Amino acid sequence: MIYRKWQEKYEKICKDFGYSENEDKKSAILLNSFITNSSTVEKISEIIRDKDIFVIGSGPSLPKCIPILKKFKKPIKIVADSALSFILENRIIPDIVITDLDGDLDSLKKISKKSMIVVHAHADNYEKLEFVKNFKNFIGTTQTKSFGKLSNFGGFTDGDRGVFLASNFHAKKIILFGMDLENKIGKYSNTKRTQRKIKLKKLKEAKTLLQWLSTFSKSQLFTTSNSIKGFTKVRYSDLDYIIT
Fold this sequence. Notes:
The protein is of the alpha/beta class. The chain has one domain: sialyltransferase cstii, chain A, CATH 3.90.1480. Helix content is about 40%, strand content about 15%. It contains nine helices and nine strands. It has a nine-stranded parallel beta sheet, sandwiched between helices. Strand 3, helix 6 and strand 4 form a beta-alpha-beta unit. Helix 7 packs parallel to helix 8. It starts with a helix and ends with a helix.
């Protein structure tokens, strides 16, 4: 269902960033060939539906979030790949990790025994996709039309794809941490100096997509990071009243 709404956004992203839909499809076909178990989608639905969800990115505010993430045990934690190493260093175990395999692969392999991995196929990670053979539990996603065992839940970067995922599976509340999406790049994102300009452009696009998501999502949307239209800005102290 999301694809009908998503297609126009995706075509604009391809145009603005110079991406090729054909190359994205090529990667998606390869990823689909590695998937043997389709029941993991149902497992993710069970994990998320009607739950309070924390979506954790690697923005500058991430270190400040750690005590809060440790305090609240019950909410489901969806972590963007770029934040994973830091999260694990602080002994926080994610329930779901969103990745396009451009982060620390050793951390991904290690945590895949405990967490569900959501692997995204696009043109730039074709050569890395075989790494999914190391994962016990994973599902595949694509930014083109869903087919085979691949789904398209919407979203562009690991962080906002996590929000789209949670919304798709009817999370009760979605609360963002370390999702600053402004003019600063968190040091845990491991962005090279030569990639900073494109990274900031991607963050801007992610924010735009989240604002769009807020116009039709059935989940209650909150952010502890920078303001996003359609998301209620909350302080850490407010969470005692928000988390059920």
